[in-house]
Structure formats: structure tokens, C-alpha cells
């Protein structure tokens, strides 16, 4: 037996048609954390390039932040729930070893159970993989029933007390993936570097923990190796398919996974240098035949110096969410796209070419290009959403490093109990945010949505 699909029109420009960002209303200042942790002044703010760090109390978890951002996407862009045929979640923040976050999101699609997709996990890379899967799904399936896909990428990044704690954060992004998109992704040019490493992982052990095991220096070296390898594979692929003149100069903006923004600057420096090596070009008089090595501090410093202009023009201006929220894991890379959409650089004449570098420890990494289509009717709405997200950064509440530490202790306690979340004094939720309200003896969780800003878990003011 063979199935007849009828005449189908191929779709083009599949990519991001709509986008929303959620981040918690609680944050701490990195300068306060430097004092609290008794490290030298400037270590987190200058050394790592971080200004602030967002955090969630124990009434927010991966399901609640994913529900919040998905609902916001559906409402803001007036997306009909029965127009969705695929929903993929990328996250490394697991609260269950079997049940996916995606299944919980089905509550937001009443009457439409024909939605393919589950969760994809590999550290910070699961978000990029979820995006690429959804693009594939739309490319193959959209012609059949005119259905689109949603991608939800979300994480709560927290570390045990120690040198990595300052590199936490939390956030969630939802994308609508459709044909004729405002930001098509040219996913056929995606090039990967995949390798078995133990730089950052979350083993199943006798005691549950939300904290990863981290080999800090291996994770930094693995990230830079991944930049060099993915960019090399990407350029080789382009050349193989007749695109000989593409270089880093061909892109208006370059986005990187951001554990902290200083890491991004190093990543960009390695990409910029690799570009020159591949093209056999001199860089500001430096002969690239005399190899610089990203693992050597002096060489890396030289690469950073050589890439100063590219950093200033194509990457640094778009790190606002990364500097002020911290590492959101899967959304960290894509928050730069949103910042770019808000920028004046995005409004000048002509379509824009952008490049994404995705990295997830363990390790999985990829480089892929996208385009911002100035002619797209959705671009103005996307810009509005981006500008409003930037404004929201100033509507957050600042907490002390002591209060942040107390909150993380409460999350630890909650994880080892099945009690009602004990929200620490003063932590807050934006209006229209889902929160965890209870957990029963089988660890089944319940959620509710706040209508106004919520303080102390129950006192409500608008
Ligand atoms: N003023 C200015 N700069 C300073 C100061 C100061 N007072 N003090 C230190 N610095 C600089 C250091 O020179 C260093 O910069 P450099 O390496 O560019 O020279 C930087 O601040 C950090 O200082 P370190 O001593 O190297 O920091 P530490 O070893 O304590 O921790 C680390 C840093 C390894 C990144 C840690 O935060 C960590 O393990 N984080 C989690 C892992 C991570 O984010 N990995 C990245 C990729 S994987 C992922 O996305 C999770």
C-alpha cells in the first residue's frame, strides 16, 4: 500500500516567525556577590564581564517558566493553538527522568492533542537542537496541513557554593517556527563539533541535586576548541557548496552561547582568528602562518586584541540580557538575537546575515547562519517584544547576596522533601507568571498563574 499526499508546494525561508523571552523578577548585583564571597573587586564584573544575575525562588521550576513563556508567545502573537503541529522543548533542567516538560505544556493546547515532539537534552545545546528539529518538522510537514511548530528553551542555572556560583542565571525563550519567517535559519549549512568530554555534567546519584559537577578549566578549553572546530567545518561546508567568498565579514552580527560575556569575547576572538587562518590572510599585520594557540594565555590575549573591532560592532552590543541575567543555559545564545532585534543596527536598509555558535558541555556544538528579513511583516512585532523585554530588566527587584544564598538553600530543602514550596521573604513574580503551588506524596506538581505581581508567595500587589 502507498499513501497519496496529493500535490504539495515546497516551503521556503523556514525559521523564527515569533519570539518571547521570560526571566525571573529576582536578581542580585554581581558587585554585591563579589563582596559577599570575599573575592577581589572586579572578578565577576570585569573578569567574567557579568553585571547582574537573575534567580528563581522555590515556587518556580522548569515547567512553570516554560508554561509562562509559551503562554506569552501564544497571547502576544495571537497564535491559534490548533495551528501548532509540533512542540519541542530544549532544556537540561530536569525534574523527572521520564516525563517530559513538553507533556506539561499540552495543558496550554486544549482540544489539540495532535502535537508531535518531546524534550531534547544536552546541557546548553538542547535549545539549538530543538530549534533545528522544529525547522526540519516544518520543512517536511507544513505543506500537509499548514501547521507550524513551537520551540521552548528554558533553564534554571544554579551552582553549588564556590567559584561557579556567580555564573548562574535563569530564563526561557519560546519561538514560533514557520515558513516565510522573519528570521529564516539556513540550517542546511549547520556544522557541528561533537565529542565525549566530562567538562560539566549532572550525574544521577544517591542524593538529588540541581547543581552540576563542573571542571571549570576543561569547560573553558572545550568551548574554545568547539568554536574553532565548528567554524572550520562550517567554512569547509560553504566552500564545498560553492560559497567561496563568505567570511566573518559577511555577517552583521555574531551570537555565541554565553556562560559569561568574557567567554563570548574569547570565543569571538578564536572565531575571528580561525577565519583569517582559513583564508590565509594577515590580521593587522600578524602573519597567521605563525599559529596562535587558544590554550595559551598570551596567544588568546593577542587574538582578543586582533578582534577588538568585530567584538565592538558585531557581538558586544547584543549581550545586554546575558550581562544582566547571567547564564540561562539553553536560551543564552538566542537572547542575543532578541537584543539585536531591538537595536538600531537591525533597522538599517537591507536584509541582515547573522551567525549562531551553540555550545553544550559534554559536548555538543554547532555553527549555523540565519537572516533577518527586513521585508517581513512580523519584524515590527518582534522588535516591540524585544524592546519591552529590555525595559522589563529595570522592573526587577534587587536582592542581597545573603537573600540569594538563603533562596538557594530553600531550593535544596524543597528538592529533598515533598512539601509545599517555602518561598523566601520578599521574592517576587511578574504578573501573568506560572508558579508551583504544591507537590503531592508522589511528587506530582501543581501550578497556578499569578494575575498581579506576587510578593512573599501570597501577598499580592499590582
Ligand atoms: N579584576 C578583574 N579581573 C579579575 C579579577 C579582578 N579583581 N580577579 C580575577 N579576574 C579575572 C581572571 O584573570 C580571569 O580572567 P582571564 O581568565 O580572562 O584572565 C577571570 O577573572 C576569572 O578568574 P578565575 O580565577 O579564572 O576564576 P575561577 O577559576 O574562580 O572561576 C570559572 C571561573 C572557571 C569560569 C567558574 O566560574 C566556573 O567554573 N563556571 C562554570 C563553568 C562555565 O561557565 N564554563 C563555561 C562553558 S560551559 C557552560 O556554559 C556551563
UniProtKB/TrEMBL annotation:
Transmembrane segments: none annotated. Pathway: Metabolic intermediate biosynthesis; (R)-mevalonate biosynthesis; (R)-mevalonate from acetyl-CoA: step 2/3. It comes from the Eukaryota. InterPro entries: HMG_CoA_synt_AS (IPR000590), HMG_CoA_synt_C_dom (IPR013746), HMG_CoA_synth_N (IPR013528), HMG_CoA_synthase_euk (IPR010122), Thiolase-like (IPR016039). The active site is at 92 (proton donor/acceptor), 124 (acyl-thioester intermediate), 257 (proton donor/acceptor). Residues 12-181 form the Hydroxymethylglutaryl-coenzyme A synthase N-terminal domain. Its EC number is 2.3.3.10. NCBIfam families: HMG-CoA-S_euk. This is Hydroxymethylglutaryl-CoA synthase. It comes from Caenorhabditis japonica.
